[in-house]
Amino acid sequence: MSKSAEDQRSSSLVVSRRTILAGTGAALAMPFIARQGMAAAKDVNVGVVVPLSGANAQFGINSRNAIQLVADEINAAGGIKSLGGAKLNLIIADSTSTPTTAATVAQRMISQNSVVAVLGAFASSLTLAISEVTERRGIPLLTMSFSDVLTERGFKNVFQVVSKGSTLGRAQFDYSVALAKASGETIGKVAIMYEDTAYGTSQAEGLRQAAKAAGIAVVLDEAYPLGVTDATPLINKLRSSGAQLVFPVSYLNDSILIVRTMRQQGLDIPTIGGAAGYVIPDFRKALADLGDGVLSISPANYDQAPELTERFRKRFGYFMVHEAIEHAALTGVLASALENAKSTAPDALRAALLGATFDQGWASVMTGGSVRFDETGHNKNAYPVMVQWQKDELVTVYPPEAAKGKAQWSKRG
Amino acid sequence: MTQGLQAIVDGILIGGVYAIVSSGLSLVFGIMGVVNFAHAEFLMVGMFVAYFAWAILGLDPLIGSLIALVVVFLAGAGLQRTLIRPILKAPPVAQIFLTVGLMFTLENGALLLFGADYRSVVTSYQTESLHLGGIIVSMPYLFAFLMSVISGGLLWAFMRYSRTGRAMRATAQDPMAAKLVGINTDRMHQIAFGLGVGLTAFGGAVILPYLTVYPTVGSQYVVLMFTVVVLGGLGSVAGAVVGGLAVGVIQALSALVFPMQLQNLVLFVVFIAVLALRPSGLLKGASA
Amino acid sequence: MSAETILQVRGLSRRFGGLTAVNDVSFDLTRGEVLGLIGPNGAGKTTMFNLLVGIHRPSSGSIRLKGTETSGLKPNRIAKLGMTKTFQNVALFQESSVLDNVLTGALLHHPVAQARDAAHEMLRRVGLDHIAGKLAGDLSFPERARVEVARALCTRPDILLLDEVMAALNAVEMEEFLALVRDLRKDGLTIVVVEHHMQAIMTMCDRILVLNFGGLIAEGTPREVAHHPAVVEAYLGKAYTGDHGAH
Ligand SMILES: Nc1ncnc2c1ncn2[C@@H]1O[C@H](COP(=O)(O)OP(=O)(O)O)[C@@H](O)[C@H]1O
Ligand SMILES: [Mg+2]
Questions:
Q1: Residue A289 lies in domain
Q2: Is C244 a domain residue?
Q3: One domain, residues A232 and A312
Q4: Most buried of the four, A313, A413, B200, C240, by CB within 10 Å?
Q5: Ligand 2: distance of its center to the CA of A326 in Å?
Q6: What pLDDT is stored for residue A255 in this prediction?
Q7: Residue A13's closest CA among A227, A254, A252?
């Protein structure tokens, strides 16, 4: 069904307001592109563009924390040795929630700060905007955004460290069916609910394809607006659909509403979230015991390399969330590539990024224990994991080679 | 059949809350003639007050809602005196600029103070529900509804029978005549604004048990609130109640038939139809 | 005569841009009297009332009500001090009942327990108690004017300013109204009336002020004023050219 004029009008109203807000934020943030001390001549400037204000600020802050942690460690250990001990000097800027702002600040740090690479920008829409700039300038862009498109446009300078959105969607589905089977349940009917922006839509597509391939009926396939304030109608539909399990793809706010409303209605079919809102400490904090047992797909998890990720927890006081893990891996990869390239020239750096398997230090924190970019710039070694909330921790429960604990399938999550 | 009934019950429960948050907006417009675009931000403020009352003092949001009402009432009365009063006689454009500016200020102020995090409370009744026949009545929704009904009833009685309530209605109908019978209309405007934003804050607090609070939550309600007051007849508090219930039920019923995404579309179609057929709102149109 | 001066007006002026609507007017009001204020349309009568009750601020001059300077005070303060007016075009709370209109005034000036009785009493006096439940907006013009008088009376004023309340009254209603004024005066109320109906003015008033082009052109008993040359001239519609010091 096509969106009608009214619907579009109402959404454009919201968008334009957001745009104004973001624009204002950007204008305010512009002069404050942070500089970490004066860069000595030999230091290497690395651009970091993440949302530090607006709805996604928390994710941006998590990402910045991780990059900071890794850069500090590398610098303390003597910097990039092949470049005479050059330190990594982070140039951090707020992407806000607006793609144009993200592109502008990236542009600015390339021309004014001569960054050798850009890390960012969490949200796919922002990363896509930045990638246009970095591609034009031939500067590597290292990202953990999910969107399939990022590494499918033939760009030479995009390096995607995580599994793509469609892969995540398929894994979310296949892993769940496998877990159900392992505990003796045959799945015949499933429900998909997703927020209707790029992230939810692309992951839902992966879920749909996997269901089709497995010959399992999708009895509810429902998009909802991102800013939903009442999940009751959605859960009413879920209840009457007779689904045996549900795949909600949501950010934090909607994930809380969905899980809470399900519990209110006594609906305790397994809930397998699509990362984002389901795999952060705030989810658990907001739902307390209600969150216990909820499963989610995730592109990485901190229990895969605790000796590394505990350093994050120690410094920042919360577990190392997946966007932090992935940004840490990217920072580690970048340092190794600079080490190998013995140069900050973009071409040399790109060649170094493409050639090797990175399995030292923080580069090994990703699933698979290493990072290797194929010719499109995608990390071939990455695979998603299924995680489950068990008490206050996220435990990897699938696939078996990565599992750190047993899945509690019958638990109401 | 059960599904339809369930949707109507859900719609009424949530509509009661829409009614109370929107009646604040209606009150401000009805008595001062000011369209307050910042109004939904006070819902956010009320949610934050109740959230911190819970996080710091351990108070249930249903009790915290009273604190939210008082705090935001006082803040609103102060704002009225310093910002709104000077533009009461200004052209509408100036009023729009001021209240839109206030909206941005509150939203960004909250972002600055509290960050963009989503926060929510944990209460004992959060996941409880009553099962009546095949119908599920969620406790947090029921409590929010009951709190709204009680406060709505008190508001109605206050406006109808109290000296101040009468004086406020008189001010709304003819400010000059009100002054000549000895009513301090400035004071009435101040009370009306405080009460209007306070009620909306109260409404925000009572829905906290089933929602999350974040600095931009107001923007999710602004269009809805204006739909409610226009449906009910701008400036009519009783109309806001009818409008609120209507919006709640329409949303719930349309979600039965259409995808969730089209929930608001159906609402706007009804909204436009009402504007076309009964331009002064459901209530007025019915009585005229 | 030991009559108490309840209101003292000195050198009162009000300009609207280049127009002087009230021009250097001075007069005294004695407690218990009924004063008429007459003059052609546009003479400044309504503006004078508005100055007295605080709707307009004087451009210059002073107003002392029972010894208190009131110029610059808000209408609600002046109402509390004991002076209020009715509007030439009647201003009621249209969406409220007749009783509620009157009660709104009564509640602010009576103990709560007595307000309702006071409201009914005033409605009885203006002959409207039988329609206390009707919506104010549904009444005829003369009825509305009477509601307004009842509402004003409920503020327990010492001085009541009536701006053309008799317009649109028929002969019977006018008789009733004159009776009401006599009644109120017996209770000690001081009244200022603006009316065009000369006969009514002449029977009702102790004293009359005549305004023209904002200035006071004559003052005296009804009989004196009726024969004052400046008044005759003004009312005969001739261009008034005489100097303002004529009185
Ligand atoms: N608010 C105002 N602004 C400008 N001019 C006014 C205002 N009120 C009255 N006037 C002018 O003052 C003069 C006196 O008006 P008014 O007092 O209403 O006369 P009256 O009641 O004797 O007929 C008229 O010329 C009128 O146009
Ligand atoms: Mg007049």
A1: 165-298+385-398
A2: no
A3: no
A4: B200
A5: 81
A6: 86
A7: A227
Range of the domain at B163: 11-225
CA-based nearest residue to B242, from B228, B221, B227? B228
Confidence of residue C244 (pLDDT cuts 50, 70, 90): very low
Give the closest of B170, B177, B186 to C87, CB-based. B177
pLDDT lower than 50: segments of chain A:
1-41, 412-413
Mean per-residue pLDDT, C4-18:
94
Residues A231 and A278 in one domain: yes
Could you give the CA distance from residue A72 to residue C200 in angstroms, rounded to a whole number? 98
- What is the residue-averaged pLDDT of chain C? 88
Q: Is residue A408 part of a domain?
A: no
Cis peptide before A121 (omega within 30 of 0): yes
| Per-residue confidence (pLDDT) for residue A6, from 0 to 100 | 38
Domain that holds residue C145: 5-236
CB of C212 closer than 6 angstroms to any ligand 1 atom: no
Rounded Cα–Cα distance for residues C92 and C97 (Å): 10
Task: Tell me how many residue pairs between chain A and chain B have CB atoms under 8 A apart.
Answer: 131
Q: Do A152 and A172 share a domain, yes or no?
A: no
C241 domain-assigned: no
d(CA A363, CA A331): 8
Which DSSP state fits C162?
E
* Closest approach of B163 to chain A, Cα-based (Å): 38
A148 and A292 in one domain?
Answer: no
pLDDT in tens, chain B (288 residues): 688 888 899 999 999 999 999 999 999 988 888 888 999 999 999 999 999 999 999 999 999 999 999 999 999 999 999 998 888 888 888 888 999 999 999 999 998 888 777 888 888 888 888 888 888 888 999 999 999 999 999 999 999 889 999 999 999 999 999 999 999 999 999 999 999 999 999 999 999 998 889 898 898 888 888 889 888 877 778 888 889 999 999 888 888 888 877 877 887 888 788 778 877 766 654 332
Q: Is residue C100 part of a domain?
A: yes
Burial class, C227, CB count within 10 angstroms (exposed 0-12 / middle 13-18 / buried 19+): exposed
> How many domains does the structure of chain C reveal?
1
Question: What is the DSSP secondary-structure string of chain B?
Answer: -HHHHHHHHHHHHHHHHHHHHHHHHHHHHHHH----TTHHHHHHHHHHHHHHHHHHH---HHHHHHHHHHHHHHHHHHHIIIIIGGGTTS-HHHHHHHHHHHHHHHHHHHHHHH-S--B----TTTT-EEEETTEEEEHHHHHHHHHHHHHHHHHHHHHHHSHHHHHHHHHHH-HHHHHHTT--HHHHHHHHHHHHHHHHHHHHHHHGGGS-B-TTGGGGTHHHHHHHHHHH-TT-HHHHHHHHHHHHHHHHHHHHHS-GGGHHHHHHHHHHHHHHH-TT-HHHHHH-
Domain CATH code at residue C113:
3.40.50.300
- Residue A239 belongs to a domain: yes
Number of domains in chain A: 2
Q: Is residue C76 part of a domain?
A: yes
- Judge if A120 and A268 occupy the same domain: no
Residue nearest to atom 12 of ligand 1 (CA): C21
**B60 within domain boundaries:** yes
- A282 lies in the same domain as A308: no
- Establish if A175 belongs to a structural domain: yes
- C-alpha C193 – ligand 2 centre gap (Å): 11
A180: domain CATH number?
A: 3.40.50.2300
Q: Does residue A410 form part of some domain?
A: no
- ipTM of the complex as predicted: 0.86
In a domain, B239, yes or no: no
Ligand 1: does its nearest atom lie under 6 Å from the Cβ of C43? yes
